[in-house]
Amino acid sequence: MMAEPLRMRISGRLYSGVVKPIYFKFDPEDVHNRLVSVGKVLGSNPITRGLTSMAFEYNNPALEQRIFGLHFRNPVGLSAGFDKNGDSARIMRSVGFGFTEIGSITAKPCAGNPGVRLKRLKEKRSILVHMGLNNRGAGLLHEQLMDRKPDIPTIISAAKTNCKETTNPDVGLEDYLFTVRTFRDIADVFELNISCPNAFGGQDFADPRLFERLAKGVNGLRLRQPVIVKLSPDLTKRNVDRIIEISARHGISGFVCTNLTKRHDEGEGGLSGKAVEGRANDLLSHVYKRNLEYRKRFVLIGVGGIFSAEDAYGKIKLGANLVELITGMIYQGPQLIGEINYGLAELLERDGYSNIGEAVGTAR
Ligand SMILES: Cc1cc2nc3c(=O)[nH]c(=O)nc-3n(C[C@H](O)[C@H](O)[C@H](O)COP(=O)(O)O)c2cc1C
Questions:
Q1: Range of the domain at 215
Q2: Total-model pTM
């Protein structure tokens, strides 16, 4: 165990002292695209995948869980939006993730919103995101991902195409269903993103009546995969309770708490990172309380503001079975994933747990 922190400390220093000061001089979206391109190259052959693993991976049996009938070698995943087209999906295991998300993917290709779409808010340790669901569209992405499927559990995040037409509920519903149907041979889990803060028509499918149509429609596809729902931290608790109740009736298997928050005065877009952490944790805690009433039938994924093992452990203790991140990795570097897993193993040992599953929901 001794060698792990040293290897991670070196990569952490390298990132904060050399790589990040350079990256942070350039436009965030350009840097993001470059990182995804580097990930694509590194993920394309076994030698570079092996070298990346040597630098970043950390494994420990105490972190392994079986969820949805799938083996998660650790509870830390890449959240939706970093790898919208799945280009770098095959390197994510070597970076140390236990699972990954691709998307959000929409039925039609979409360029996203115009103008500057990513802004770093360094003091807030947050990113202002106004991307608007840019992706190549379900049809093309399905073809491309057929031979690029990652070797860790993969969640396909489905959203509806960001355009005026999908504000019509029938068109919007069919848009979601098209993506889900298209990926039914690739996805391990489907995630319905009903909480994008940057799309035409707002978060209309978070309205209980429309959500019920969506949940019913997806249930009608008789998928072999579980389906989970990504919630906005800005919903009222009443709205969330309705979504949970509808989910229980239509075969939804879990919730992701949460997407970006729109409650801020930084301009157009949603905030990630530390700016959303409080709200995300508040909603996670609320959903876990409801989950107890439903005899823990739902799997919960906690996301928003994870920058350390303690942050991840906090969400697990609030009731998350798994956690995800993006912003922490951008601010701290890719070694953060291994650091979190290493730190989680230490925290479990400190608290006398032999497996991560025993710590879930112990905060109350
Ligand atoms: C650049 C960027 C793009 C994102 N795009 C999506 C997206 O397409 N779909 C989605 O469900 N969430 C998206 N998100 C939200 C993240 O998945 C996550 O819920 C949020 O950023 C909070 O986690 P974090 O603080 O670890 O970044 C995006 C976030 C960022 C930073």
A1: 3-359
A2: 0.95
